[in-house]
Amino acid sequence: MEHFDIVLALSRIALDADAPRAAHQLERLKALLTETDKEQAGKLGRLLTKGARRQAMAPMALEEMRSTAEAARRHLPGETLTPSTPLPHDRETSAPLVNIQFPEGIETEPPILTERLSAAIDDLLNEWQRADELDRIGTRPHTRCLIFGPPGVGKTKLAHYLAKRLELPCVEARLDGLVSSFLGTTARNIGSLFDFANRYRCVLFLDEFDAIAKARDDAQEVGEIKRVVNSLLQSLDGRDGKGFTLAATNHEHLLDTAVWRRFDARIHLGLPDAETRGKLLDTFVKPLSLQGAERRFLQWATEGMSGADVEALIDAGKRFIVLHGGADADGRKRRDAATRGRTILEALRRHALLSGRLFRPDRAALLMGSDEALMQALLNESFTQQETGDLVGLSQSQVSRRKARPETRAGTDG
Ligand SMILES: Nc1ncnc2c1ncn2[C@@H]1O[C@H](COP(=O)(O)OP(=O)(O)OP(=O)(O)O)[C@@H](O)[C@H]1O
Ligand SMILES: [Mg+2]
């Protein structure tokens, strides 16, 4: 289908506005595309799955989102950025310095974080609705957030979500255009980038921020890095009151301390805890679902993984189930718990082989070792004999016969 990107953007808007009816029509379109263009059908399918996830969002969403966005628009100055606005370029290479994401093209769901952190982030946004009151007591909403943490935990996703909630275009700095080997050019590009962002009402997003905000004492690149960081500091100061600035890095220890201080919110996204991993699993596994013990088993197996790792694991699991698990593509076929459990275990083993050091070493050793050792570990983790049997693919009596130690908790919920 021609202009499929536009169709996809429109589909996203329609799903945001009236999910059930739009979803029905898009399912029809997907069925038609399956005949002619499998790649496009797949993209639409993924959008629909995400749409279904969105429907599970609290009803607060739409009203609250609109009033936050209106308030932010009222308080932030600048011209309106449109798809036809000319973008800034590097003078020597003509490479564009930015990439713009308009809010319609950004997914609505927030990253899955701990409840406390999600509430704190909601507060950052809700401040805009109280901006006048804040002004009266001499303060204002946060406008400069640094997001830091290990790879794959949702930093970029959080930045996009904030722009979406503010309904502002997200002006993303392009490092390939921005960073130049010509002396002085990177600093000049940073100036042009901020001039552009300050002119329009937008969120400026500096992803992989350490590339331009490294400590000025870096022994190898002293002259140039000093120039770049000084220009960045000036630009950050000059952006005061002009718009929202976000930066993300997974090397926060490399950042120049003066740059670090320029941010009024510094959000640490760590690796997800067990509860958050449970929520990530529930989200990614859709349209399939996990039973109680399977979910706890995967929470245990994924300890130490990022959200992106969990997503990749579940994706691999879905592929494995279609190839080897006897389920149809929608996973509708019901199978007994032990067969399901064994399939999940085999899927984890396969993914461990193909994903290089993804699992925590102790988890990998147990998953890839003998059934007996895994069985024992699960019993020690408070899985019941029945649950352990189901997960390893043995009957409860086989588990109790093979079990090495008698003092495990049995039959509490299995
Ligand atoms: N907390 C999360 N909630 C929901 N999805 C997540 C989360 N963390 C990661 N993901 C999934 O992993 C993908 C990659 O996440 P993202 O790019 O935001 O990570 P990042 O922290 O920016 O990583 P990097 O440091 O490598 O840039 C997301 O698009 C999303 O599908
Ligand atoms: Mg990122």
Properties at a glance:
single chain, 414 residues, alpha/beta, Rossmann fold, 3 domains, six-stranded mixed beta sheet, 20 helices, 6 strands, disordered C terminus, binds adenosine-5'-triphosphate, binds magnesium ion
How do the strands and helices of this protein lay out in sequence?
Elements (H helix, E strand, L loop, with lengths): L3 H14 L1 H18 L1 H18 L5 H15 L22 E4 L13 H12 L4 H6 L7 E5 L6 H11 L4 E4 L1 H4 L6 H15 L3 E4 L3 H4 L8 H17 L5 E6 L7 H5 L3 E4 L5 H12 L6 H10 L5 H18 L12 H18 L6 H8 L2 H10 L4 H8 L3 H7 L12
Parallel strand pairs: 2-5, 2-6, 3-4, 4-5
Antiparallel strand pairs: 1-3
Spatial order of strands in the largest sheet: 1-3-4-5-2-6
Helix content: 55-70%
Terminal Cα separation, in Å?
Answer: 51 Å
Q: What do the pLDDT scores average to? A: 88
* Helix-strand category: alpha/beta
Order of helices and strands: HHHHEHHEHEHHEHHEHEHHHHHHHH
Number of strands: 6
- Rounded Rg: 25 Å
Annotation field: number of helices: 20
Overall shape: it is globular
Bound molecules: adenosine-5'-triphosphate, magnesium ion
Name given to the CATH architecture of the largest domain: 3-Layer(aba) Sandwich
Give the full name of the CATH homologous superfamily of the largest domain. Answer: P-loop containing nucleotide triphosphate hydrolases
Largest sheet report: 6 strands, mixed
Number of domains as seen in the coordinates: 3
Write up what this structure looks like.
Helices cover 56% and strands 7% of the residues. The protein contains 20 helices and six strands. It has helices at 4-17, 19-36, 38-55, 61-75, 115-126, 131-136, 155-165, 175-178, 185-199, 210-213, 222-238, 257-261, 274-285, 292-301, 307-324, 337-354, 361-368, 371-380, 385-392, 396-402, and strands at residues 98-101, 144-148, 170-173, 203-206, 244-249, 265-268. A six-stranded mixed beta sheet has the order 1-3-4-5-2-6, with helices on both faces. Helix 13 (274-285) packs across helix 15, helix 15 crosses helix 16 and helix 16 (337-354) packs across helix 19. It is globular, with a radius of gyration of 25 Å. Residues 328-334 and 406-414 have low confidence and may be disordered. The structure holds adenosine-5'-triphosphate and magnesium ion.
